[in-house]
Structure formats: structure tokens, C-alpha cells
Amino acid sequence: MRALDFSQRRYGGVRILGGPYAFVYLVGDTLIDVGTGYWGKRIAAFLKGEGLKVGRILFTHSHYDHIGGYTYVREVGKHTTAAHPYFYEVMARERVVKFIEEMNRKEMAALGDPDAERYTFVPPREGLPLEDGQRLEWEGGEIEVVYTPGHTKDSVSYYVLPERLMVVGEAAGVTNAEGTYILPQFLTSVIDYLNSLRRLREYDIEVLGLPHVRLIEGRREVKRYLSLSEAATKRYVSLLREIYEGCGGEWECVRDRVMVEVYEKNRLNQPKYAFLANLKAQVRAIERDFYAL
């Protein structure tokens, strides 16, 4: 599992909270994502201890490691929520809610959290459906809504001004701890994911707010990272297609080869159960985009 140290740092009017595994962004009284149950509990305790209020929560997408902490963070002040319209459709599905709960319990148990067995995911079922290009005010400026599908259908990035901070969810991949490998995160569409990466490159970004492991700072480094992420995605897709065809589409064969050639080779820190859940979705995305199955 990843490092457990809770961290806080400031960038302009933004507080970046959490840890190397689950960065969330407090923009004035607007919180972007809430992390997993494990991190959400710690983030909620920090906010209460500092007397910080949350008036609005924006979600980048509907995955367990970005919304599991809502169970705890929802207790920090009166707030509204906002996300892609499809996000709230997903939250209405009991099967999804149970899966999110299961994944968060696994992480909490692995990290020795005593509340693992008692954890219950409380989904945000109502909120403001956001539009692409919409601008939300905060006390220091504006937050632009940028649709960036491909990781999920409901993936949204948030461009925080005047800081020029882009919070991207999983739209731009995730690096390993050493920064030597970028793991692409397309789960619903390779094509949409690549188009979203290209769209992000059109913005003047000073800090790329990744959700895990590290941040990318400086305009030149951000542009470089996004270019590398696009190239890494194309290589990864090529490798997956090679493995998929070599395995005749058999899941167990694909799984075993990718674990060796990607997960172990690049020393990824993502929990294996999460990596494998994502890999299944990536295989389905490749089937849809390239094999019309």
C-alpha cells in the first residue's frame, strides 16, 4: 500500500490535502473530491480541527477512491454537491454503491483502520449537474468546468483561476512513485481519453493537480507531462492489444501477462485489486474501440 502520512500544503488560495495516495483540493470553501474512506476520515478530522467549512463539494468522477470519503466529509458543514449529470445516475445504482463500499472496506482493512468493518458508503444522490464550460465562483476567483471523458463517462476536470491549477481526476494518467512511468487510466474509451488529454494541453496550466502520488508544477513541466502521458497511452494501448490478441482475448492470460509486463515491471503502488478492476475495464474499452465486440 502507499504511504500513510497526511499532508497539507498551500498553493495560492488552494489547500492541497490528503496524502500521496489521495490528494483533494480545498478551494476557498469548495472541496474537489473527498478521497477514499480511509483518507476521507482523516481529511474530515483535519477540516474540523482547523475550523474549516465546506460549502460545496465538486466530484471529478464516480470512482471509490474519489468519493468513498463522502461518508465522513459530508458531516463537515452544510454543503451542496456538483458533478457531471451522469454521476448522479451512477450514484442511484445500488450495485455500484455496494462495490464502492467493498473497495473502501478493503483499503481500510489493509491500512489497519479499526472502522473497516463498520464503514458504510453514503452516496451523494442529489446535486447540481454541471455543464461543460460552466464557471463557478469562489471567494478568490472562478472554477471552470471542463468535461474530460475517457476514464469514465462522468469525468470532469476543474480549472481553478487565478491559480491556473487544473484538477484532472484520472484524466491525465497516474505516475509511479519515481515518476518514471505514467499509467494511463482510460476505462470507457481510448479515443475519448486521448481527446481529453489533447484538450487539457490547450489550457495555460501552472499546476496539474493529479489525484495520486505527485503534482506537476510549472507550465513547461505540465506541457511535458501531458505530452508524455499521451505517448504513454498510445504505447500502453499497443501493448494491451498485442497481449489481448496473443491471449485470444482470454482474461486470465491477459491479466497474468499485464501483471508482469506492466504492474511488476514498473513497480506500481496501486493496490492490486484496484489495478485489476481497472484492467478489466480497459480490456472492455479496447474491445469496444478496436474489435467492435
Structure, described:
The protein starts with 6 loop residues before the first strand and ends with a helix. The chain has a single domain (about 5-230), classed as Ribonuclease Z/Hydroxyacylglutathione hydrolase-like (Metallo-beta-lactamase, Chain A), CATH 3.60.15.10. It is α/β, with parallel strands linked by helices. The radius of gyration is 18 Å and the shape is globular. About 40% of the residues lie in helices and about 20% in strands. Helix 6 packs antiparallel against helix 7.
Give the helix/strand class: alpha/beta
Based on Cα principal axes, name the global outline: globular
Strand order of the largest sheet: 1-2-3-4-5-6-7
Q: What's the CATH H-level superfamily name?
A: Ribonuclease Z/Hydroxyacylglutathione hydrolase-like
**Number of domains in the coordinates?**
1
Number of strands: 15
Which residue ranges are poorly predicted, with pLDDT under 50 across at least 5 consecutive positions? Answer: none
The biggest sheet, with number of strands, parallel, antiparallel or mixed sense and barrel status, is: 7 strands, mixed
- Write the CATH fold name: Metallo-beta-lactamase, Chain A
How far is it from the N-terminal to the C-terminal residue, by CA? 35 Å
